[in-house]
Amino acid sequence: MNRHPVRTLTLFLSLYALAPAAGAAAEARAWLNQMSQALQALDYTGTFVYQRQGSLEAMRIVHAADDGVEREKLSSLTGPLREVIRDNQVVTCILGDRRAVMVSKSRPRQPFPTSFARDIGDLEQYYRFEMGGRDRVAGLTCQVIEVQPRDVYRYGHRLCVEVGRRMLLRSQLTDERGRVIEQVMFTDIAFPEEIDEAELRPDLEQAGFTWSRESEHQQPAPQAGSHQHWKVERLPAGFMMTDHSWHQLDNHAPGVEHWMYSDGLASVSVYIEKARDAGEDYRGMSRRGALNAFGTMVNGHYVTVVGEVPRATVEMIGRSVRYQP
Amino acid sequence: MMTDEIREQVSALVDDELDDLERPLLLGRLQRDAGLRACLGRYQLIGEVMRGGHAQVAGLGIAARVQAELDGEPVSTPPPQVAARLWKPLAGLAIAASVALVAVLSVQRVHAPQQATPALASSQAPDGAFVRVDDGRWNRIEPAVEQRMNRYLVNHNEYAASRSMPGVMPYVRIVGYEGQQ
Q: What is the mean pLDDT of residues B121-137?
C-alpha cells in the first residue's frame, strides 16, 4: 500500500499544477513548427515594415513555392532600390545605389525545429516558450508566441502568427530585458493562387553593374587537420558546431574557412581568412539591429564572428579563437 | 572580475539606455571600482569618437573625468596630444563615408593607439580596441573590409536560415538602407 499518501498527493498536485505551463510550451512550439512550414509552403505577396533603432523602412516580398522549390524576391520600397532574389540555386543581391550585383549559392532550408535542435536536447534549457494573447496585424488575427532566452547570450523572439494559415505576420527580436531590438511587420499580405513569373524577376536594370560571384567550382573540404590548428575555446552553453566548410565567396577573393555554431535557434559564424597584410590592424565590433559582429586578427588571419546574437556572444567567441601551430 | 553583464550595463550607461533603477546601482558600483571606471572611460571615448569626433574631450584623464562627473565636480580639459594621436588613424575612415551606404553588416576598422595610454589599457591590454557603435553611425569603413563583410553576411544568412528561427528577417538587413549620415 501507499505509505505516503500526503506526499503522493502533493506530488500529484504539483505535477498537475505544472501541466498547464508545460502544455503551453508544447503548444507554442507546435505553432512555431507550423509557422515554419507555412513560410516555406505558402505563396504570398506582401508589404512589410522593417524597424530597428532609429530607422524605419518598407519592403515588399513575393514568395512562391512549387513542388517544394521556393523562390522569393525581396525589394526595398524606401531609399535606393535594392533587391534580393533567391531560388534553390542562387541568391542574387542587386544593390542599385552601389551598382553592384552579388551572386552566391543558396542552401536548402530545413523545417523548424531542425533535427539538430532535437539532438542537442531540449531547447527549453536555453529558452522559455510561451503562448501570448491574440493580436491583429495587417488586418488578420494572430497569436502571440514568446520565446525568451534564459541567459544573456541569446536574443528572444516575440512573434505574431496568423491564426488561419500559421503565417508569420510580425516578428520582433528582443534583448535580455524584453526590449525590441528590431522588428518586421506586415502591413498588407495576400495569398494568391498563383504567383506571376514576372513578379519574381528583378526590376533593376543591371547594365554596367559590377558583378561578384561565389566560385562555381566544387570546394575542397577544409584541409585535413586544419581544425586542429584553429580552436574556439569558449562558447555559450548549448552552442555546438553544425558546419565546417571552406568557401571561395568571390572569384577574386581568397578562400575563407567557415565554422558555424548553433544552439538550435540562434546561429553564429566564425570566418577565418588569410590577411593580405599580416601587420594589418583588423579589430572591432559592430552592430546592425540584432546582428553583431566582432573582428580580430589572429596569426596573420582575419577572424570575424557574425551572428544574430548579443554582442557579448560574438565577443566571447571571437576573443577565444586560438591558433596552434 | 568584470562579468559580461556588468560590461553590458556600462555600455548601456554610455548609450543612456539604463533605467532609473539601474543607473544609481551602477553609478554606486563605479564609485567603488576603479577598473570599472576605466572600462566606462574607454567606452565613452570610443563612443564619442565614433559619434562624430569630439576627440578633443578624449584622453588620458577620462576615467578621472568620469569620477569628477560622479562627484559633481567641474570637468577639466584633458591633454590634447593624446586625443590627436587617437583621432588621426580614425580620421581616415571618413574618406570612405561616401561609399559606405550599403545596408549590410560591416566591421568598423579601428586602430588601437600604438602606445596604449594607461586609461585605455588599465583593465585590458591593447586588445581593448573593443568598439561600441550605434546603428547608422559606424558605416565609415574601407571598401575592401566592407566587401568582405558583405560576403560573410550573405553566406552566414544562407547557413543560418536552415539552423535558426525561421522568418523573413535574414535578407531584410541587406535590402535595408543605412540612413544618411
A: 30
Quick check: helix, strand or coil at residue A44? strand
Put simply, whether B88 touches A (Cβ < 8 Å) is no
Give B-chain residues touching A173 at CB under 8 angstroms: 169
Higher pLDDT, A219 or B159: B159
Domain ranges across chain A: 20-210, 214-323
Contact (CB<8Å) B155/A247? yes
Domain residue limits, chain B: 4-175
Phi, psi of B161 (to 5 degrees): -60, -25
Q: Do B165 and A184 touch (CB under 8 A)?
A: no
8 Å CB contact between A260 and A175 = no
Class of domain A20-210: mainly beta
Run means of pLDDT, 10 residues per run, chain A, 325 residues:
52 51 82 85 92 83 88 89 86 82 75 49 82 96 94 93 94 87 92 92 83 66 62 92 82 82 90 82 73 87 91 93 90
Three-state DSSP state, B43: helix
Coil/strand/helix, residue B63: helix
Alpha-carbon span A40 to A279, nearest angstrom: 46
pLDDT in tens, B33-67: 767 766 666 665 555 444 433 333 333 333 444 45
Q: Is the distance from CB of A184 to CB of A49 less than 8 angstroms?
A: yes
ipTM: 0.77
What CATH fold (topology level) applies to the domain A214-323?
A: Phosphorylase Kinase; domain 1 (3.30.200)
Pick among B151, B153, B181 to test the A interface (most A CBs inside 10 A)? B151
The β-bridge partners of A259 are: A244, A270
Q: How many residue pairs bridge chain A and chain B with CB atoms within 8 Å of each other?
A: 232
3-state secondary structure (DSSP) of residue A210: strand
